[in-house]
Design goal:
single chain; alpha/beta; Rossmann fold; eight-stranded mixed beta sheet
Length: 271
């Protein structure tokens, strides 16, 4: 009996230590920023046809101007890893899929690239809302589409809730309904609903959204499984277009999405 109690006490201590460690350092398991000197980023951006996007003297992302006068503007918020310049491929995909002339902006999150700050839900969503407001101030006023990828879907859903007037539409790539749901899949042995500081409640954020929402899912996604995206779609009464790409994982969904599918997504968003 004493041995059993000693084993239980030992297991409890180990579990408590693990919970404490994951609680204190949880954001290290959520955010994986890639840091780079500003001059190197600007040099690389120039080779990709991207222009630096500044606000108050700070580099906050990249701008891919439309070749002709634009008919719409797009704000891209990437996932939790890398930096904004790594989302250049999204600008190319959107351009090829659309007969619209898109003026595209890629947001650099605080703590990513050369941008100072610490990444967390508050800083990322605040930066994205500020960016959307800045884009809205550009003349002439044009429809605004928010594009979120993985963690960035939580960011753009929050912006859609707070931006007045709201954006015309959302493109959500491998989204989740809320981060607690996603965390429970990866840490089923932890009380993540209680411990998690950054919850990204996308389902609540888009509950009253009335713009168009396109959702792109990967059938073999083990990071944000497709059922989480379907739960998100069911949380809104907005017009939705949900597409699941077969035999595709979280990180290869864009290269595995047929061009005709992306064409239909863009057509839906601009109807």
């Amino acid at each position: 009996m004493k041995l059993f109690l000693h084993v239980c006490a030992y297991v409890l201590i180990l579990y408590s230590t693990l919970v404490l460690y994951l609680t204190l350092f949880q954001r290290r398991f959520i955010y994986y920023p890639e840091k780079s000197p500003k001059n190197l980023l600007i040099q690389r951006a120039g080779t990709l046809g991207l222009k630096p996007w500044y606000y108050s003297g700070n580099l906050i992302g990249w701008h891919k101007p439309a070749e002709n006068p634009p008919s719409a503007r797009v704000l891209i918020c990437g996932g939790n890893a890398g930096s904004a310049i790594n989302r250049f491929h999204l600008t190319t995909i959107l351009e090829k899929a659309s007969d619209q002339k898109l003026d595209t902006y890629i947001l650099e999150y605080p703590g990513y690239g050369s941008r100072p700050g610490q990444p967390n839900e508050k800083t990322l969503t605040s930066a994205a809302l500020e960016a959307a407001i800045l884009i809205r101030e550009i003349s002439p006023p044009l429809p605004l589409i928010l594009v979120g990828e993985s963690l960035g879907t939580g960011v753009v859903c929050s912006v859609a809730q707070k931006l007045t007037p709201p954006p015309s539409g959302l493109l959500l790539i491998t989204p989740f309904d809320n981060l607690v749901s996603a965390a429970k899949i990866h840490y089923p042995f932890l009380p993540v609903g209680f411990l998690l500081q950054d919850k990204y409640k996308s389902d609540e954020a888009i509950k009253n959204f009335r713009g168009r929402i396109a959702i792109l899912l990967a059938s073999e996604d083990t990071i944000t499984p497709p059922h989480l995206g379907r739960k998100l779609a069911s949380a809104t009464q907005a017009p939705t277009f949900v597409v699941e790409i077969p035999n595709t994982g979280h990180n290869d969904i864009l290269q595995n999405t047929p061009p005709e599918i992306m064409d239909k997504i863009i057509e839906f968003l601009f109807q």
